[in-house]
Design brief:
209 residues, alpha+beta
Length: 209
C-alpha cells in the first residue's frame, strides 16, 4: 500500500477500525523504531487523525529517526524547529491510505526523578500486531470513545480509552474482566480492565472534552 496525496472526505470520517489497520500497515514497513505512543483522535477544525509520538526520555536524535522513517513512508518532508524555549523538535504530517498521520518528537524536559525507559523487549512490528488485534473490540467501542491511545512501554503495550461520561465508561467495561477497585470512580481515577486481546485497558473520564 502506498501513501495518497490530498485529504479527501474519507480521511475526515471517523473510522477507528480502518485507522487501526492503516497504521498497522504503515508500521509494518518502517523498520524498528523507538517505543511509540499512537493516539487516535479528532482535532478540532482539522478532523480525525492519528498522532504517533516518541518518548521524551530518548535523545532528540533517536526520536528524530522515527519521524524521518515515517515521513519517508508517507511521502512528506519533516519540519524541524523550536517547540519549547531552547528545546527543538521534529514533526511531519501526511496521509497513509485513508488516514491522516502526524508523527512528532516529544520535547518535554527530562525532570529529576523521572524514570528512564526500561530495557526494551517490545518491537515496532509487535505494536502493529497489537493495533490489528484491537480492531474487533474497536468496532463495538468506537461510538463511546473520544480518544484511543496505545502505548509501547518498552516491556508491554497498554491501551487507554478516553470517554466524556461515566456512563460511557461503564458501557465500555461491560463484558470485560474488570479491576473491581477501579469501579467506584472518583475524579482523577481511571477504570481498569483486561481486554479480550489480553492487554491492559484504562478508561479515563474527561467530562471537559
Amino acid at each position: 500500500m502506498t501513501a495518497r496525496g490530498g485529504y479527501g472526505m474519507l480521511a475526515r470520517m471517523r473510522d477507528l477500525e480502518r485507522q487501526l489497520g492503516d497504521v498497522a500497515r504503515l508500521l509494518d514497513g518502517v523498520g524498528d523504531l523507538p517505543p511509540l505512543d499512537v493516539t487516535f483522535t479528532d482535532v478540532p477544525d482539522d478532523g480525525p487523525c492519528v498522532i504517533i509520538a516518541t518518548p521524551h526520555q530518548l535523545p532528540l536524535a533517536e526520536q528524530r529517526l522515527a519521524v524521518d522513517q515515517i515521513a519517508q513512508r508517507v511521502g512528506s518532508v519533516p519540519a524541524v524547529g523550536e517547540v519549547l524555549m531552547g528545546r527543538y523538535g521534529a514533526s511531519v504530517r501526511g496521509q497513509w491510505a485513508d488516514t491522516v498521520i502526524v508523527a512528532c518528537t516529544n520535547a518535554a524536559p527530562q525532570l529529576p526523578g523521572t524514570a528512564a525507559l526500561p530495557p526494551r523487549s517490545t518491537t515496532t512490528r509487535e505494536t502493529a500486531r497489537v493495533l490489528r488485534s484491537l480492531t474487533a473490540w474497536a468496532r463495538a467501542a468506537e461510538p463511546l470513545l473520544h480518544e484511543l491511545v496505545i502505548t509501547d512501554s518498552s516491556r508491554s503495550h497498554r491501551v487507554l480509552a478516553v470517554v466524556t461520561a461515566d456512563q460511557d465508561a461503564h458501557s465500555l467495561m461491560e463484558g470485560l474482566v474488570t479491576d473491581t477497585d477501579s469501579l467506584g470512580h472518583r475524579p482523577g481515577r481511571r477504570y481498569r480492565a483486561l481486554l479480550p486481546t489480553g492487554h491492559s485497558l484504562s478508561v479515563s473520564v474527561d467530562s471537559l472534552r
